[in-house]
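Our collaborator T.R. sent over the components below with a one-line note: 'Predict the complex.' Nothing else. No constraints on interfaces, no templates requested, no preferences about which chain binds where. So this is a plain run: every listed entity goes in together, and whatever single assembly comes back becomes the starting point for the next discussion.
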Amino acid sequence: MTTTAEVQKVNGENVEQALDDVRRKLAGTEGGVILDFSAVQRVDHGGLRAMEDLANAADEKSVEISLEAVNVGVYKVLKLGRLTLRFSFVN
Amino acid sequence: MSDKIVTLSEERTAYLEGLVRQARTAAAVFTQLTQEDVDQIVKPMVLAGLEQAQYLARLAVEETKIGVMEDKAIKNMVATEFVYNYVRDKRTVGVIREYPDRRLVEVAEPIGVIFSLTPITNPTSTVLFKCIMAIKTRNAVLFSPHPSAWRCCFEAVRIMYETAVKHGAPKGVFTCLQSHSLDDNKYLMRHKDIGLIDATGGPGAVKAAYSSGKPALGVGAGNTPVYLEKSANLDQAVVDIITSKTFDNGTICASEQTVVIDDEIYDKALDKFAALGAHICNEKETEILARTVIDPNTGSMQPMAVGQKATIIARSVGIEVEPKTKLLVTPITGVGPDHPLSMEKLFPVLSVYRAHSVDEALKVCVDVNHNGGLGHTAVVFSNQESVIQKFGDMINAGRIIVNSPGSIGALGGVYNDLVPTFSFGCGTGGGNGTTDNVNVYHYLNIKRVARRTQAHMWFRVPNQIYFNMNATENLRNFPSRSTLIITNPALEAIGHVDIVKRSIPPETPVRVTIIPDAEPDMKIVKQGVEALNFYKADQIIALGGGSVIDAAKIMKLQYEFPDADLKELAAPFLDIRKRVVQYPTEKTNHARLIAISTTSGTGSEVTPFAVMADKERGFKVTLADYSLTPDVAIVDPQFVMSMPKGLTVDTGVDCLTHALEAGVSVFASPYTDSNAMQAVRMVFKYLPMAYENPHDEEARSMMHNAACIAAIAFSNASVGVNHALAHAFGARFHVPHGRANALMLPHVIAYNASVPTKFMPSPNQGAYVAHKKYAMMADLLGLGGHTVEEKVANLVKATEELLDRLGVPTSIAELGISREEFEKAMPELAKIAFDDPSWRSNPRMPLVSEIIELFWSAYKGRGTAPAKPETEAKAVREMVAV
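Returned assembly:
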């Protein structure tokens, strides 16, 4: 089945909320989701936990999530949080 | 803690995993904070700790039943205020230190999650200290307090955590185990997400930390020896010891355990202890304490005594003391298992020992130090610097506290400038990785960003060089009280010495020393030095080729520095700036060295090198130092007009090799390039002329100058693999140096111009440029060619044609050396060539196999040097950035 991935811009001011919204909508998603992180400069504790929850939900629903335009600081946070292998990345 | 596999319930494992996950998440998020961010969190934490110092101290005493509330409050304040005073201006995020002159910067990388054990003796102060360090360094901490101090520690963690998060620290940055088991600790110590274990506590906890396989800071037991030497200020010493040993009832592991007192002041010291509230135990009381406060089975202190008041301890063992007694002093006569009170005692019982000499006192202190206190802390009271130094030399302790209290002194920042801490590194003696007072830098991975540096270069030549026909006449400008001419018999016989003599001011006393025209040896040098001493010479004129000038250089060295050990000065080195052996500088005598060359090849008149043989001791000495460079060089072609053809060729090709090798050397610089290139140009033009018409004054003159100019280049840029090959081959088959060089030359040019198997490390070179520099030489010679590889091929061809024109044999085989003989010699040739220092400045690092290939190419002869295949040349083009 070929589907077109939907690009969603992540609100840099409230990453946790934005990702929770994505997670809730995953049920109706076919194919993949691309999250545009260009507005995200930092991730706080809640945001990182939301990333982990999102990864779990995506695995459960077999939805592939790609992160686009992740800055290197945030990428390192995801690496230290052991989350980089759970997403694919688009520069 | 045993080393068995940990078995935890599923529920417990999930709980611990949850804690680690929370800490890991916090640590990850923490990496985004700046220095300003963390500093804004640390300050309110410190203030919160100060505000709650007394509250936390009371909680600690109530829960642990150890120590003194007032003292614990002070500890809490030291752990916050003093530590803050130390860390407030320290950079712990991003670039933390810069060394511009070394082009180095240090960059901080947090550790991540730290698993921290805290002790019963200093529970809340240790927590406060570690929380402040962790925030300052952007780490998360998972605390595991001593089970008997859990509540007070949990409260300290809570206060720190809430303040930190309120001011911007990530959630989950501090976590405290809700309850405690050894299996929990063991599980966490081995957890993949724990970056560091910081274990402050008993030996068991520290050992477990170090045994976990994780990086660990483990700070455990001590046994502080104290030497009270007779020159000390006794009043101050006694007060300091009592202050320290009774502080928090002696719970700080750096506190005094055994005081070794000089016999002369022993009784007086004990009187002063007694006068200030100490109870001096008699023999029976000491014996009672020895078997009650120390476990006879383990030799360790009994927990019931730890941190208790002196009166309570005395009462509990049936010793009657005054109600105001603050310290029990127990005289002992030895150290070790037979003297239990010589062990660590974290309570106010202090052993004393009467010593009858400094030597005995130091030995007893060493015994105490090795009786459970290695690497920890030691104290000396003395006003004799020699005693303090000796104590510092003999005692293995990370902190040697002088004329001040041990416990508070070791904490740092109160009595001295040690870094404030609540964790004492005990070095390898204590099984630790550091002897430092543990501080913020131990909570960081410090990264060094090392930028490329360029070695300092130089261009050094004799002070004065006189050249052109009759330049020798300039000798009249050099006044001298006594001059010694060093030369060889041939030059004297043909009247060259007379020419020199005529140019020296007539009033100058001149003597002549004749030496053989061969590589100088030690015997010759000694004779020359004797002559210099006899005539008290202040000027040496070396008239001759390389051998004579080299001999004169070494004679001057030995004359000016009679104690110089030539063999030691000849020690090998890789970089002249970092050489192990330094040449002497304090001269016994002074003499000016004027070198007049009579051949056009070695250029010894301007070089800092000299070679000699020590036949008696059986070694060859190659000396290299700019102090060997003659003070004055005279390049007067009148001395080379009659050089025989063979010598003209050999020395001329030697000169060409110097120029070509200096030109492509990794030490080449624009200063040496100009000389090298000019010398190449002059040799190609004038050497054939001088060879074919020996009386051509211009050709002789220019070749004489070329030799000097090439030598200036290689004196500062060195030579290369051609010389290494020629040295080995020439010595083995008795072939003159210049001819040996000539046989190798075309093959080496082709070799250096191709893509190296191994590049030579050379910080001063921006890229591999040897082939381009050969091409520049080809351009200078007008050899034509459109590409670098064409030009290099033309240079190889022109070199071969020059050698043909000069009648140089085309191959080693042509010298009459059989293939079998050459093959047999090859292992030794390759070894000697590889050991030769000359190739260390070659642009291409020669492998032994390549050295052998070069030898065989030279054996087969000219015309066999492979022109670089186009593919290889293309690879060079692609690889090298211009």
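Summary for T.R.: The CA atoms of residues 750 and 865 of chain B lie 7 Å apart.
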